[in-house]
Amino acid sequence: MNKIYRINPKNEDTSIKVLIENIDKGYKLQEIEDELTEDDILKYSGAIIIAPDYQREYRFKLDDEVKLIESVILGIPIPPIFLATDKFKGVRVKNVVDGQHRLRALYRFYKNIFKLEGLSLLDELNGYEFKELDITVKDDYLDAKLLTITFNDFPGIEFEMEIFSRYNKGTKPLSPQEIRHAAYNSKVNAYINNYAYNLVKNKNIDKNKLYEAYNASKDRIQKKKLQEGIFVILSIIENGINLNYDKSLVYAEEYMKNKKELEKNNPELADLNFKEIVEEFKLFNAFIIRLQEKVDYPFSKEIYGISSRNYKFQISIAMIIAGIYKQKIKCNDLLYKILEDDNERDRILDVIKLNLKESFLEDPDYNASTTNSKKINELVDSMIL
Fold first, then answer.
1. pTM metric for this prediction
2. Where does the GmrSD restriction endonucleases N-terminal domain lie (predicted)?
């Protein structure tokens, strides 16, 4: 019988001051784009990873934040924070399994992002930011201890996912998609999350067409639908259409899982692979932008003349376009011709339109999934560009 793995979490009383310092380190670590030195790796060790693209969109209301701060100042016990050790950019860090909102509220108050309002037990502090509090209150706040429970070195990703699932049973539990993104945290995952948020953040800059192509929205980012759609695309443009995958979700989940495992088992190869992914994704998006000069929403049926207000990004179309890019355009050295020659772009687009119009997508007798890998592969293979 195999030895049974036990979690053996480490319980500690951690001051808010230390938590804030480690959250600060986490923010700074995520902003570093250059390769880390050994000194950097040691400097940022122990960082707590909280980012604008964290497990779920921030849902605490001001009233929730204020009540939490009041409880801390009064010494009322706060529910424990659950953390899990991980590697991020080669640094030993801690992901937040449960307690993301509490940590963020504590950090936001310290950074003077909101004032105390509507306090019932400490009404004399109403209207104050942290910087305006008496030094004694500040000191007590930073010295207050929270119970942190840290899980160390899970034996595998599936195990870690189950732990995430079991400990996210609060009033606002994580969705399955959010759990996957928390458990499969990797450099690639962080890059795509940042990419998704920047699509929305920069939507009005230079007429960001990719914002429209990916149908980016805060809601789709919050629910991780946008990111998972991109992971499906990345899986296909890197590895091709997999006939063993029966639905699009498998592409995203296996891709995220593999990048996590590669980063853990072979960091040097993972770094090289990451750079290749970023460059290939840029080229793919350049191709999409060229298509957008003729079709606003190339990941929808609009690419072959059928418009719909409600379906601007359809995963089946995205899979087909990614397959065409991988198996027809890159393999035949057509990309740079498309990027530089309008006539070549128009010719390719006409071929795509004709083939999709006559495909299983518009077959009234076809009742199976439109993300069927075998059907998509047959369609892509049949195209002559």
1. 0.68
2. 46-184
